Amino acid sequence: MPPVARSADPEQFVRNAATTLFAWDTTTGLLPLDYISAILTVRDPSGAEQAGLANDVAAYLLSRTAWQDLREYGTSQRPMIDRAYIPDQWGAAGAQAPEE
């Protein structure tokens, strides 16, 4: 599974991350852990937030058992992102982020 495509444009980056997380297919042989790993490739470079991010991302995905059950039906999903925007506080968050 390819990692999230990086982008200096925050709106494009969030679209890329959302697509990686929410566009899944139970028939590919991948499991929820593979999708979590793809998101973690663009984590906080210090690693300080990695455990929290992994838990947050896991909460969005199906359990392994549910995934395997849905595999029998060839279940997949694709997000349709109609709107994305940059929150007012984005600049402050970026200023607090450590350099890579």
SSE topology:
Layout: H1 10-22, E1 24-25, H2 32-40, H3 50-60, H4 64-71, E2 76-77, H5 90-96
Antiparallel strand pairs: 1-2
Helix pairs in contact: 2-3
Beta-strand percentage range: under 5%
Helix share, percent? 40-55%
What topology, given as strand order, has the largest sheet? 1-2
Given the helix and strand composition, which structural class is it? mainly alpha
Number of domains: 1
Biggest sheet features = 2 strands, antiparallel
Shape: globular
Description:
With 100 residues, the chain is mainly alpha-helical. The chain has one domain. The chain contains five helices and two strands; from the N terminus they run αβαααβα. Helix 2 runs antiparallel to helix 3. The longest helix is centred in the first third of the chain and has 13 residues. It is globular. It starts with 9 loop residues before the first helix and ends with a helix. The model has no long low-confidence stretch (mean pLDDT 89).
Give me some keywords for this one.
100 residues, mainly alpha, two-stranded antiparallel sheet
In short:
The chain has 100 residues and is mainly alpha-helical.
